[in-house]
């Protein structure tokens, strides 16, 4: 039976009970805070509209209630100020030992405890996943960190038969992976001082005693362009600031980082952030088993990248000659070569000269690069080194927390991915990020909105389907067969000729115009296409998109890195049989595009998620300025809409009166009973004399009364 509308059946019986005097009574004996706790779960808001949900969240935020249940999701408002008591070990324990944690205040620990108990109870599917989503700065990383601390503390609170040593070691390492990955993968952006520039899925693996036995981390799409380009008022990855600010005098000499030196790729160094602490990163690296000498090697290579960024080229007088170096930057070529252990001449040649193979005999020609090409090569060198370094770091972390799969029996996965992005200019990065969000939305729709309604129908309830936005059309546009944006992009890469964005735009329009999710900005001079995502329209620029997708590294650069005498670079760029000194073969190697790599890693992730019981934490940023005590309605509203939370609440709320009418009813009136004296028990005591249907009605009517008291 669907939710009853007020004023329908049952009206005559109980209309009087819910008259003004009822409101008066409620007003008299419930404090504001008590009223707000009635909305610990947004499914109790009545009527469920975007406005009532928004008002409820705002009212709760005002009294520091940042977490609210919303059907299968937990809405987490970012307080933008520390509340240590909200994450204390005592509170973790309280949720862990509670008979019914779901009866405590909504909290990420309640979600965490629920997943843990599901594993213990062997509920099918036993493996659990928590999908933490939200836009940049909404609190995903903070939430994931707190969840990891919770699991670590839960695992430590029981004595393992083997003793607690292994558990503690793994727990320490899992926690230490955070500062290291944040140092190398996070940066200060306009939207968040500590923004993760990669996606992360961490699997906490439990043995049959439900102790943390091991873990694994998978990362997605590091924003490596940041190494060589930082938008105005943004910064490079934290680690660069950490080494330039925190190195000792001796290290400064070794890494060639004199105090006060300026680097083009190190903008805004005067901004001091908590995240600049070099000591924390080093200590965590030590705990992860990365020895001091290896660390020093890493930092030396990073210093090399800073010097590389200072190399600038100028046009040669004679065009047949390689580009000149600007006088003031000549010294940086030498220091870069020294730090990366690459002979200066080889380094310069790889940056300034292209090797071309042509003709039937595959003759090799050398051609000087233009100034722009030299700059692209310099940036590319930095990006490829940094990306491989990050991959290596993740590998090392994984090795230090790994256990053979025979050791663990179940897992809890935490997914912290970048939220939906729509900037004035969007390119391949946003296309991938928004594609990931479409996939996760599809997962949410399939696992919750659709599954829940199908369950109602299967139970034989009269159920009129509540419309939710199905994003299949958009996913077809992005990745469908045989033609999609991704397939066209990949094809364009395979053509092995410079891409023409205007022609490419025409191809996309011709091939995909039948999909309603595709349009274009005809007034813009820049070639583009617009996709109507579930969370809104985004206009993508086509200039450089194909090149970004190719992500080609000139073979001369790989070659020079493979010949480096630096032991870390040798590890990052091993000489394999296929590529040994063979620039010709590399020129013909098949292109593995960014999009195809990203798509396959995401598909792998979705397969894992599909086999788990999902839980969703929707992080919401109450204002764009990251200020405490500031709730901007329009900003919250657009985030609520972007994650389909109102539809989810509507579906849960509509199902509730039918599924557990008494529970909800009693719950509500229990509060009234507790709060009022004998003379005021009139309404509550009526509860025993009503039929289930009347109670359900009364229940929903009471919700509106509370809503009225709270909001109007
Ligand atoms: N529960 C919380 N209590 C107090 N402060 C918080 C909380 N959650 C987040 N913050 C603050 O908000 C900032 C941004 O949070 P966080 O880095 O977790 O966002 P994010 O969603 O991971 O962003 P991005 O996608 O850019 O990485 C944090 O640095 C912290 O200052």
TrEMBL record:
- Record-given protein name: Unconventional myosin-XIX
Q: What does this protein do?
A: Actin-based motor molecule with ATPase activity that localizes to the mitochondrion outer membrane. Motor protein that moves towards the plus-end of actin filaments. Required for mitochondrial inheritance during mitosis. May be involved in mitochondrial transport or positioning.
Q: Where is this region: Actin-binding?
A: 602-624
- GO CC, alphabetical: cytoplasm; membrane; myosin complex
BP-aspect Gene Ontology terms: actin filament organization
From which domain of life does this come?
Eukaryota
Q: Which family is this protein grouped under?
A: Belongs to the TRAFAC class myosin-kinesin ATPase superfamily. Myosin family.
The entry marks the following residues as binding ATP, namely: 134-141
- Do you know which PROSITE patterns this protein is assigned to? MYOSIN_MOTOR
The protein's UniProt keywords, in alphabetical order, are: Actin-binding, ATP-binding, Motor protein, Myosin, Nucleotide-binding, Repeat
């Amino acid at each position: 039976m669907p939710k009853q509308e007020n004023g329908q059946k049952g009206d005559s019986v109980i209309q009087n009970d819910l008259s003004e005097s009822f409101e008066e009574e409620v007003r008299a004996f419930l404090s504001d805070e008590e009223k707000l706790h009635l909305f610990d779960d947004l499914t109790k808001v009545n009527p469920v509209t975007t406005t009532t949900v928004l008002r409820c969240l705002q009212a709760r935020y005002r009294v520091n209630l940042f977490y609210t249940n919303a059907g299968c999701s937990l809405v987490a408002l970012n307080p933008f100020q520390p509340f240590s008591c909200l994450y204390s070990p005592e509170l973790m324990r309280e949720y862990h030992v509670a008979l019914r944690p779901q009866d405590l205040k909504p909290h990420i620990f309640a979600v965490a405890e629920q997943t843990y108990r599901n594993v213990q109870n062997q509920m099918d599917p036993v493996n659990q996943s928590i999908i933490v989503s939200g836009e940049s700065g909404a609190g995903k990383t903070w939430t994931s960190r707190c969840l990891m601390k919770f699991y670590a503390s839960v695992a430590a609170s029981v004595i393992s038969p083997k003793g607690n040593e292994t558990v503690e070691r793994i727990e320490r390492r899992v926690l230490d992976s955070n500062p290291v990955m944040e140092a190398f993968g996070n940066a200060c952006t306009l939207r968040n001082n500590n923004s993760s520039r990669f996606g992360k899925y961490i699997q906490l693996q439990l043995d049959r005693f439900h102790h943390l036995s091991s873990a694994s981390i998978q990362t997605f799409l590091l924003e490596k362009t940041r190494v060589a380009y930082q938008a105005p008022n943004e910064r490079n990855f934290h680690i660069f600031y950490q080494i330039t600010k925190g190195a000792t005098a001796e290290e400064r000499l070794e890494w060639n980082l004199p105090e006060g030196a300026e680097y083009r790729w190190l903008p805004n160094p005067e901004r001091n952030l908590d995240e600049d602490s070099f000591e924390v990163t080093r200590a965590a690296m030590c705990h992860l088993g990365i020895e001091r000498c290896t660390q020093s090697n890493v930092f030396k290579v990073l210093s090399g990248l800073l010097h590389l960024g200072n190399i600038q080229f100028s046009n040669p007088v004679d065009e047949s000659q390689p580009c000149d170096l600007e006088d003031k930057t000549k010294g940086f070529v030498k220091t870069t070569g020294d730090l990366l252990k690459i002979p200066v001449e080889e380094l310069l040649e790889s940056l300034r000269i292209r090797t071309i193979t042509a003709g039937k005999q595959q003759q090799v020609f050398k051609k000087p690069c233009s100034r722009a090409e030299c700059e692209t090569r310099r940036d590319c060198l930095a990006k490829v080194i940094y990306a491989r370094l990050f991959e290596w770091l993740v590998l090392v972390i994984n090795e230090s927390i790994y256990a053979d799969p025979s050791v663990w029996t179940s897992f809890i996965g935490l997914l912290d991915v970048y939220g939906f992005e729509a900037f004035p200019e969007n390119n391949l990065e946003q296309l991938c990020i928004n594609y990931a969000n479409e996939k996760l939305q599809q997962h949410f729709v399939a696992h919750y909105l659709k599954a829940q309604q199908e369950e109602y129908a299967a139970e034989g309830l009269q159920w009129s389907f509540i419309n939710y936005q199905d994003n299949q059309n958009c996913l077809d546009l992005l990745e469908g067969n045989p033609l999609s944006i991704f397939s066209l992009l990949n094809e364009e890469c395979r053509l092995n000729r410079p891409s023409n964005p205007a022609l490419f735009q025409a191809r996309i329009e011709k091939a995909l115009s039948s999909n309603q999710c595709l349009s274009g900005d005809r007034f813009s001079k820049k070639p583009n296409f617009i996709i109507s995502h579930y969370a809104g329209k985004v206009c993508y620029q086509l200039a450089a998109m194909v090149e970004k997708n190719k992500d080609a590294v000139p073979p001369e650069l790989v070659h020079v890195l493979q010949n480096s005498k630096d032991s870390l670079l040798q590890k990052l760029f091993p000489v394999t049989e296929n590529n040994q000194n063979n620039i010709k073969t590399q020129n013909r190697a098949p292109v593995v595009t960014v999009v195809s790599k990203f798509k396959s890693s995401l598909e792998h992730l979705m397969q894992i998620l599909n086999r788990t019981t999902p839980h969703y934490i929707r992080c919401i940023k109450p204002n764009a300025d990251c200020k405490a005590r500031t709730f901007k309605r329009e900003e919250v509203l657009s985030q609520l809409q972007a994650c389909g939370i109102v539809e989810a609440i509507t579906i849960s709320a509509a199902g509730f009166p039918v599924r557990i009418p008494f529970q909800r009813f009693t719950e509500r009136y229990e509060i009234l009973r507790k709060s009022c004296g004998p003379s005021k028990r009139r309404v509550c005591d009526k509860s025993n004399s009503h039929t289930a249907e009347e109670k359900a009605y009364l229940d929903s009517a009471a919700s509106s009364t509370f809503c009225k008291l709270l909001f109007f």
